[in-house]
């Protein structure tokens, strides 16, 4: 699927159980349906990596919003800000230094497969939200 230039897109690890659960969480709790989603393993993410000079081995969540790239904890907090209360209150952690936030984020990211598991393939979205996903 194509996206409109002004639509924010979340790139996520499509084989990670935690990441897939996070996408389902966002779909359930976002204030307004605004995000599109694309797995890091897909063609859209490859195109974005080239366009924005992201490293091939980038495995952080990536938020593309207003032609800007946000990664790791900054991406997660910007996404949380668009969720319903009380989840939007997570934005309070934005006051913490980025280095500290990202250290916590990367610690969880390094252990996500061990703690939450991994699939052999990208999860297929439910039909009612399939239009929100980019391949």
Automatic annotation (TrEMBL):
GO molecular function: protein-disulfide reductase activity
Pfam family, one: DCC1-like
Top-level division of the source organism's lineage: Bacteria
Transmembrane segments annotated in the record for this chain: none
Name this protein carries in UniProt: Thiol-disulfide oxidoreductase
Underlying gene: yuxK
């Amino acid at each position: 699927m194509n996206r409109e230039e002004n639509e924010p897109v979340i790139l996520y690890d499509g084989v990670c159980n935690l990441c897939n659960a996070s996408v389902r969480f966002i779909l359930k709790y976002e204030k307004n349906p605004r995000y599109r989603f694309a797995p890091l393993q897909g063609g859209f993410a490859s195109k974005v990596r080239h366009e924005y000079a992201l490293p091939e081995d980038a495995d952080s969540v990536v938020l593309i919003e207003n032609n800007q790239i946000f990664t790791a904890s900054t991406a997660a907090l910007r996404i949380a800000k668009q969720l319903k209360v009380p989840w939007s209150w997570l934005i309070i952690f934005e006051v913490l230094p980025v280095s500290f936030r990202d250290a916590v984020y990367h610690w969880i990211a390094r252990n996500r497969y061990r703690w939450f598991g991994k699939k052999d393939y990208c999860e297929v979205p439910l039909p009612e939200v399939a239009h929100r996903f980019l391949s």
